[in-house]
Amino acid sequence: HRERPDRTYLEILDEAVDYRRWHRFELELCDPDNSRTRLTRARHAQLSGGEKAATLHLPLFAAAHAWFEAAAPGCPRLIALDEAFAGIDDVGVPELLRLAAAFDLDFFFTGYDLWITESFLPAVMHYDLAHEPRDRVVSAWPVLWNGRETVEGDEALR
């Protein structure tokens, strides 16, 4: 801020975290016949909801993996996604999760009706939220998927 007193802190922060200044991505779609087309705004608009979501998730995972690979070994590899897999079908979600696991990424997901119990994942911690408007209370019930089975409540936290 000392170097740019004419700019607000928000403007400086916005510029600093804008990944488009660090990298340029050009995405291609690979069709079942192995033909490739450049993913433009117009082509993206033609995709189904799940396809649109997947075309955004895949480069995000790859970019995060590449960025985290350059970090110190002990640094967290965490990505937070709100409504992570909205619009992606039951076939696409495991495929994206498998890719996330292959990239060795840790995720914090929020989503309605998001229940992940894939055997290829070493562990997934779920928190089911219950809202009691009358009592003004929101409670969280922990459920751990340990790669084989679900464990609930206090046992999940051990």
Summarize the structure in words.
- With 158 residues, the chain is of the alpha+beta class.
- It has 4 helices and 7 strands; from the N terminus they run αββααβαββββ.
- The chain has helices spanning 9-16, 41-45, 49-69, 92-102; strands at 28-30, 36-38, 78-82, 106-110, 124-132, 137-145, 150-152.
- Helix 3 (49-69) packs parallel to helix 4 (92-102).
- The model has no long low-confidence stretch (mean pLDDT 86).
What layout of secondary structure does this protein have?
Elements: H1 9-16, E1 28-30, E2 36-38, H2 41-45, H3 49-69, E3 78-82, H4 92-102, E4 106-110, E5 124-132, E6 137-145, E7 150-152
Parallel strand pairs: 3-4
Antiparallel strand pairs: 1-2, 5-6, 6-7
Please tell me how large the radius of gyration is. 20 Å
Give the CA-CA distance, first to last residue: 45 Å
> How many strand elements?
7
What's the order of the H and E elements? HEEHHEHEEEE
Task: Indicate the structural class.
Answer: alpha+beta
> Helix content range of the residues, please?
25-40%
How many strands, which pairing sense, and closed or not: the largest β-sheet? Answer: 3 strands, antiparallel
What is the averaged pLDDT score?
A: 86
Number of helical segments with 4 or more residues: 4
Strand-residue fraction? 15-25%
Characterize the overall form.
globular
Kindly report the oligomeric state of this protein.
Answer: single chain
Could you name the ranges where pLDDT drops below 50 across 5 or more consecutive residues?
A: none
Q: Please state how the strands of the largest beta sheet are arranged side by side.
A: 5-6-7
